[in-house]
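Observation: inputs received (chain + guanosine-5'-monophosphate).
Thought: call the complex predictor directly.
Action: predict_structure
Action Input:
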Amino acid sequence: MALYGIETESIRAFDALLESGRTVTVTAHTHPDGDALGSVSALVAYLRERRGKDAAAVLPDSPAATVRFIVPDSVPLLCHDTDPEACLARIAASDLVILLDANGFSRTEGLQEAFEASPAPKALIDHHVGPDTDRFRVAFSTPDVSSASELLYYVLLELPDIGGDARRLPADAARALLTGMTTDTNNFANSVYPGTFRMAAELLAAGVDRDAVLADLYNRYRENRVRVMGYLQYEKLRITPEGLAFIVATRDILERFDVDEGETEGLVNIPLSIDRVKMSILLKEEKDHFRVSIRSKKGFSARACAMAHFHGGGHENASGGKLWWPADIPGPEAADAYLEQVSRACLS
Ligand code: 5GP
Ligand code: MN
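Observation:
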């Protein structure tokens, strides 16, 4: 079996698809994280620099300030929240669409309809379970890889013009791939495979400055991030008898600490360091719902919990979803009781 199920046949079809496309749109899931931004940026950079394509990134919403740096200046980026007409025009004008780090266009939310209406051929490179493969001419999909960035790396290596040599990747692409993989593995803490280390070694040898990547990712936050993370852990962390840790970040707290999108990234992982905690859930209040992040230890399924109780999904140990009011709970104040019920349902 080829590495991560990347078949020669699929590479040939993908290469032909790239060759035939002129106006290529690359997209990923809503609220793009480091892996979504890294993989999209790397593919656009490769298509522009190595294949001379008019390639651009089109995303359902703008990257958070904390991860915006991942998209290099050389990569054109359109976002549906700030520039809806330009996004729709770009999709309509595209003769090839590539979806990364999402298992179907439903994860592109506001852009779903436009992508599904587009007659352009489509390709998928993703690491979530349940890919919507019928919609794609070519699909590279396995959950047994660290990240979309890593899967894309090995797909790119197989293409004839890269020929297995990471040094032939554009520098912007190489750096974006290492950055995306680093964020999805939480800096080599989870979902790491032999291929993940091999990729890192090859990209370092090709000249990627990992120290700079880590400094950009982890040493450039605003002070309020550290303060709100401390406050939420000290004042708001609850642990149920079954071993569910949860934090409800209400709007008043998020406003008091002036928290921006992306500034609580990583918080949901912290309670897992407690011995008796099996699963951790973070709720962040929005207008009429909570955004839900779930992480679990081995043997407990964040994904099953997200699907059963939060209209979501994701990976076995890292998932997410939403909790609406009044549909799911009467109002935001009912979140604690709901989570205690979820704890009994998911962990006992
Ligand atoms: P995060 O907690 O970092 O926002 O999301 C973790 C993972 O959960 C993501 O990589 C994604 O796979 C999944 N995820 C997050 N939100 C949703 C959602 O609303 N629906 C689905 N299906 N998956 C989600
Ligand atoms: Mn990912």
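Thought: report the result.
Final Answer: The two ends are 39 Å apart (CA to CA). The first strand starts at residue 23 and ends at 27.
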